[in-house]
Amino acid sequence: MQKLLALLLCCCLPALALAQHGKVYDNLSMESKILNGERKYAIYLPPDYETSERSYPVLYLLHGAGDDQTGWVQFGEVLHIADKAIQEGKATPMIIVMPDANTGRRGYFNSIQGDWRYEDFFFEELMPHVEQTYRIKSEKRYRAVAGLSMGGGGSFMYALHHPELFSSACPLSASTGPVDLDGAERYLSFMGIENASKAQKEEYYNKYSALALIENMPAEEVESVRWYIDCGDDDFLYEGNSLVHIAMRKKEIPHEFRIRDGGHTWTYWREALPTVLSFVSDAFHQY
User: Which sequence spans correspond to the domains of the chain?
Assistant: First the structure.
């Protein structure tokens, strides 16, 4: 019996030795003219990146409020989860980019006053920078966006503002934006804009409410993105995500909608990430 076990171990050792692992760099930076300073980001490179010459699809993975570019690395265990999904064949090798949206001001959007243009930075500087620095396929079908909470809101808005750029979007426990004009006023007040005018409220609601965008955009634009929406049954953001699901159903926009047991926690998001990686891989694979 001992000899058999020893033989099996010897047979397994070469496979274990050959198993490659991805790499994460969580303190990279680039200069931004738009935001007038240095911006940090983290990146996951798949296991065969350094031994191949191929280019890879890319997932932009956005953190939530209070975290930075290291959130998905430290708390989300992106290295372990992505490596496992790729090794098991449940996800295609991909590059994962995790930008910092917590420096200077918090959030993924441009300010209504126009003095902070994070969304412009993302599309005009960050995306070109990483797609020129790393071997990334730059076509829509090889690009996806996902994120949690505030980053889930960023995922909604980025894919709805630019459906021509993303094949898939996966908002998790997302802040979906205001559900009406009164809600827009509360959002603006939270950002320090008191006594917002009707025009300001309407502008914010029409641009940063997932509901407003889905209702006002042509259905074919919204459905040109593959949607995976996931929110826990105990999450305080449950209502907004449910209303988005209903709005999509009314317009017959195909999407996946999941309500699982759980709240607004890293345990929930870690459990969601393997499914996200598999979902975006379906598009990368020409499902």
Answer: 20-177+220-284
The dotted CATH code for 20-177+220-284 is: 3.40.50.1820
Buried b / exposed e over 29-56, threshold 16 CB at 10 Å, is eeebebbeeebbbbbbbbbebeeeeeeb
Site of tokens 């076990």? 5
φ/ψ of residue 47, rounded to 5: -55, -35
Give the dihedral of Cα atoms 170, 21, 46, 264; nearest 10 deg. 20
Distance CA 99, CA 272 (A): 19
Q: Find the angle CA(101)-CA(111)-CA(223) to the nearest 5 degrees.
A: 75
* 125-174 tens-digit pLDDT: 999 999 999 999 999 999 999 999 999 999 999 999 999 999 999 999 99
* 279/219 Cα distance (integer angstroms): 21
